[in-house]
Design brief:
The protein is an all-alpha fold. The protein has 2 domains: about 40 residues; about 240 residues, MetI-like fold, CATH 1.10.3720. It has a two-stranded antiparallel ribbon with strand order 1-2. The longest helix has about 45 residues. It is globular, with a radius of gyration of 24 Å. It starts with a helix and ends with a helix. The model has no long low-confidence stretch (mean pLDDT about 85). This is Phosphate transport system permease protein PstA. Its main location: membrane. It is found in: Cell membrane.
Amino acid sequence: MTVSMSQSIQSRRRGTTQTLWFTLFRVAAAINVLALFAVILFIITRGLSAISWEFLTQMPRNSMTEGGILPCIVGTASLAFGALAIAFPVGVGTAIYLNEYAGQGKIVSVIRFAIANLAGVPSVVFGLFGLAFFCTVLKMGVSLLAGALTLGVMSLPVIIGAAEEALKAVPDTYREASLGLGASKWQTICRVVVPSALPGILTGSILALGRAAGETAPIMFTGAVFFTPDLPTSIFDEVMALPYHIYVLATAGTHIGETRHLQYGTALVLIALVLGMNLCAILLRSRLRKRSRV
């Protein structure tokens, strides 16, 4: 009887501890969700009045106190998709090498250590690197190409990590079955492993795209400018970008108070752009997973 009472007390303690920790986890999750909605609501209430067809489709005018942000939208999209075009093949190729070909050696350990450290480097350091290497050494100047390359280097750790985790999630039985049917290792990777891991790879890549679209420090040294009257027609043209435009209006403009609603409106467009990219990642992953199960 004493043993059963002791077990009952321990069970109650475990149940109480579990309930307490689950409650703390729920509170933490609720705080994150509330913080997100608070930020979005704050931006919407202050920036919605600036949103109009003219704001989205016209050039800035009168020292950027009037007009729209079309060059910023085009520049941000160009920089983000340019970074993805550069980082995606390099990142996925690196993940395939690390997961499918590389063994457990010193070289692989050094590569993984470098990738982990690259993920922790502040974005302003990437900007200074892009300025020194792409703009100065390679003589690209402040241009769309230099900005996209800088953002691509910054996005590599995210894409490599997401792609490698997606490749690890593919069951080994898929590889064994393919090899057993006479396929080579390369054919197995291209026709079995990568298609099965594609939802996770694309999800990570689009999330990296959303991060690149919202960065300011890497592009303020390499690709973005205070103002340009024209849309980019070449990869060597300077561009305007949404995050840098917000920074300029809020800190370096000549009419900071007069452009407050434009600052919040630009921030609202940037948030909508990033959230749209994340939503596309979720929908694309869901569709690809359903297709792979058929």
